[in-house]
Amino acid sequence: MDEAESNRAAMRLAIYVEGGLLAIALVAAWLFATPLRALLTPPSGTPIALAIGVAAALPLLLFLAASLRTGWRPIVRVRRRVKRFVRALFGGASIPQVAGLSILAGVCEEVAFRGVLQPMLAAWTHPYIGLLLASLAFGLGHAVSRAYFWLATAAGLYFGLLTLLTGEIVSAIAAHAIYDFVALLALRRWPTGSRAA
């Protein structure tokens, strides 16, 4: 399989996985009467929610920049593993493909975890228990390694708190998509070497 076909296969796989996650979430929202439509309708309006999402992406991007430069061994190990994974799957992807994939991941994962799972679990338990359990599920869905599980769980907590504070998921979708876009581009192109690897 040549690089172009490999890239197309990786993109198809990502679309199937994200699309499947969205389909499962929509069925679960319907079965459990989760108020997904309300979470997709920001009380402050979509432009304000998108602006909040852009602002919310900034701390994540600062963490990404720091993690790309640190020599701290646990982060270096995670960075190497994730970089190999990203390069193997999306190394040949164009910038528009990376943007599309980032938007797809932001929409599908936020609808599934913060739009359906978190409120469903919160209704059965307590809002903060729902937040914690949905964040752990998000971490498990991204468990490339034990350390990355905890980083993804922390990101899930961040997106979940953003959802609780704003009462909508559009801000979390925007923050998630922006982070994924920058992270995918950075990890595809970050130079190798002792500190950067």
TrEMBL record:
InterPro entries, per the entry: Rce1/LyrA-like_dom (IPR003675)
MF term (GO), any: endopeptidase activity
Domain CAAX prenyl protease 2/Lysostaphin resistance protein A-like per the UniProt entry, residue ranges: 94-182
Transmembrane segments: 12-33, 45-64, 85-107, 119-140
One BP term from GO: proteolysis
Top-rank taxon: Bacteria
Entry protein name: CAAX amino terminal protease self-immunity
One Pfam family of this chain: Rce1-like
Keywords linked to the UniProt accession: Hydrolase, Membrane, Protease, Transmembrane, Transmembrane helix
